[in-house]
Write a structure and sequence with these properties.
Blueprint lengths: L10 H4 L2 H9 L2 E5 L4 E3 L8 E4 L3 E7 L5 E8 L3 E2 L1 H6 L6 E4 L3 E6 L1 H10 L1 H24 L5 H16 E4 L2 E4 L5 H8 L3 H13 L3 E4 L2 E4 L2 H9 L6
Antiparallel strand pairs: 1-8, 2-7, 3-6, 3-8, 4-5, 4-7, 9-10, 10-12, 11-12
Length: 231
């Protein structure tokens, strides 16, 4: 039932062709440029946003006024659906990481879509469940082990969700800086840089401007399983 146009882990890949077409027809089109806010934490609006392309960062605010990078989403993903479903204030801020065309779908239209298309409603529920499981996994992966292990776990998670096979390697095709990777792994930027140097030296990964290529996935997963307290 999937469509190779969309990443395999995305909501759109899971929908039938008819449900995809119906969802894309909903709402209005807009293009966000890098740095623009799609959704703001604490706001009471309730639309959902379907990402047609590009990439966004999901950011949470700390009590001290700082922010924490919680997740990334890319084409085929839906963001903002929690508030569209339950009407509660936004729980996070969503920011475009690069040019991102979207469909903005009002809550009433979104609810009607779910009522009229039960298979799509089940797919949305599975997507929400995956996000909640991922959030739990994220807390576990960033709570212990060496800095290198935590960075490796984060890279492995990104591979599973956003990896693209390319000449025997796997490219994580997301515009993430080393600071973004550090935030996702729950480590300092200096620690992430040391971990990446270690993984590059072991020929596990290569890094490019806002991109990472995993050259040895088995070795990455071995590094992710290592404990200890070192970098």
């Amino acid at each position: 039932m999937g469509d190779t146009k969309w990443p395999s882990a995305s909501l759109m890949a899971e929908l039938s062709e008819g449900d995809r077409e119906a969802l894309v027809r909903l709402g209005t089109s807009r293009v966000y440029e890098a740095g623009e806010v799609l959704i703001a934490e604490g706001q009471h609006d309730s639309h959902a946003v379907l990402l047609l392309d590009g990439c966004v960062k999901v950011v949470g605010l700390r009590d001290d006024g700082g922010s924490v990078l919680l997740a990334v989403r890319t084409r085929g993903d839906l963001v903002g659906e929690f508030s569209a479903i339950d009407g509660r204030p936004r729980s996070a801020t969503v920011i475009a990481a690069r040019t991102t065309p979207v469909r903005t779908i009002g809550a009433a239209d979104f609810h009607a879509f779910l009522r009229e298309r039960p298979w799509a409603a089940e797919a949305v529920q599975r997507s929400i469940t995956r996000k909640l499981r991922s959030a739990t996994r994220y807390r576990i992966d960033t709570s212990g082990g060496s800095v290198t292990a935590r960075v490796a776990r984060t890279l492995d998670t990104l591979v599973r969700t956003y990896g693209r096979v390319e000449n025997g390697s796997v490219r994580i095709d997301l515009p993430l800086s080393q600071g973004d990777l550090a935030a996702l792994a729950g480590v300092s930027q200096a620690g992430a840089q040391r971990a990446l140097r270690h993984l590059r030296a072991a020929e596990v990964v290569t890094t490019e401007y806002r991109g990472t290529v995993v050259r040895n996935l088995a070795a990455l997963r071995r590094a992710a399983e290592e404990g200890g307290s070192g970098g």
